[in-house]
């Protein structure tokens, strides 16, 4: 029995390693013909094995999918070695806007503006282009403004299984900007899609989309009112009866 368990653990490890993309628990279980609960048990063992090994790789479950990642210990050195590969970081204004959306979603553009104290149109458009934010519905108030929330890619890029894994507002407040950028994926690489369509309220002349970096710093206390119970998956956000959900699905 122990030999079977060891074999299946190794088989799961090999499948994740050979997969070119993160792979779902259900796919792994189906492939080797075992129950999902048993597959999860074996994968949890593997995750712990790699943590205790303290090597260059870790096995992580991110957004419900399993993949190998490099250990944080080696990120700085690897960044130097592979510096020829262009990386894009998030500016402070982008991080502020993204944090508001992540903690307050579903949220409208005007609500984001009220918290930041300046126009956030360019920031939201930029985050949509990076596939971190998307329209998730319309608020049932006069004018029916667009509601925004984070995407599945947001979870993947920042190494989160669900939104409940977000650092608490108190933890965020204690971080310096440089540390926050690293925590939320400083070396994340994004692709700007061609022919990107934005909600009408975000459409404006292209030269105005580059918002000045002169903005009022957001106090984390302003978004601290969101309880952990409100940090739910996007699918739950879309079930809010006050929303008319868009047709876009991940």
Cα separation of the termini: 40 Å
- Which CATH first-tier class of the largest domain would you pick? Mainly Alpha
Give the assembly state of these chains. single chain
Overall body shape: elongated
Task: Report Rg.
Answer: 20 Å
Question: CATH topology of the largest domain, what is it called?
Answer: Arc Repressor Mutant, subunit A
Largest sheet: 3 strands, antiparallel
Number of helices: 11
What's the count of strands?
Answer: 6
CATH superfamily of the largest domain: Winged helix-like DNA-binding domain superfamily/Winged helix DNA-binding domain
Low-confidence stretches: 182-192, 205-221, 225-250
Overall pLDDT level? 75
Order of helices and strands: HEHHEEHHEHHEEHHHH
* Strand residue content: 5-15%
Domain unit count: 2
Structure, described:
Strand 5 and strand 6 form a beta hairpin. This protein has helices spanning 2-18, 25-32, 36-53, 75-81, 92-104, 109-116, 121-129, 152-157, 169-174, 177-183, 234-237; strands at 23-24, 57-62, 65-70, 107-108, 133-138, 146-150. It is 41% helix and 11% strand. Helix 1 crosses helix 3 and helix 2 crosses helix 3 (36-53). It has 250 residues and is α+β, with helices and mostly antiparallel strands. The protein folds into two domains: 2-74, Orthogonal Bundle (Arc Repressor Mutant, subunit A), CATH 1.10.10.10; 92-237, Winged helix-like DNA-binding domain superfamily/Winged helix DNA-binding domain (Arc Repressor Mutant, subunit A, Orthogonal Bundle). The strands form two sheets. Strands 1-3-2 form a three-stranded antiparallel β-sheet. It is elongated. The chain starts with a helix and ends in a 13-residue tail after the last helix.
């Amino acid at each position: 029995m122990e030999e079977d368990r060891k074999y299946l653990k190794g088989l799961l490890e090999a499948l994740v390693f050979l997969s070119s993309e993160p792979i779902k628990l259900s796919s792994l279980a189906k492939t080797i013909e075992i129950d999902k609960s048993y597959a999860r048990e074996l994968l949890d063992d593997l995750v712990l094995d790699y943590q205790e090994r303290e090597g260059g790789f870790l096995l992580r479950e991110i957004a419900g999918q399993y993949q190998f990642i490099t250990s944080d210990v080696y990120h700085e050195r690897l960044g130097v070695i592979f510096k020829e590969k262009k990386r894009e970081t998030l500016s402070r204004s982008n991080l502020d806007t993204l944090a508001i959306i992540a903690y307050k979603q579903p949220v409208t553009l005007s609500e984001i503006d009220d918290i930041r104290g300046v126009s956030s149109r360019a920031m939201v458009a930029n985050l949509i282009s990076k596939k971190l934010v998307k329209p998730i519905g319309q608020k049932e108030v006069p004018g029916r403004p667009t509601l925004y929330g984070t995407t599945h890619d947001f979870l993947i890029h920042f190494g989160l299984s669900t939104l409940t894994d977000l650092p608490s507002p108190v933890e965020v407040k204690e971080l310096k900007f440089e540390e926050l950028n690293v925590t939320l994926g400083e070396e994340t690489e994004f692709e700007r899609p061609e022919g990107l369509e934005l909600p009408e309220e975000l459409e404006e002349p292209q030269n105005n989309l580059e918002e000045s970096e002169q903005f009022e710093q957001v106090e984390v206390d302003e978004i601290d009112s969101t309880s952990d119970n409100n940090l739910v998956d996007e699918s739950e956000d879309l079930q809010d009866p006050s929303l008319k959900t868009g047709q876009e699905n991940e």
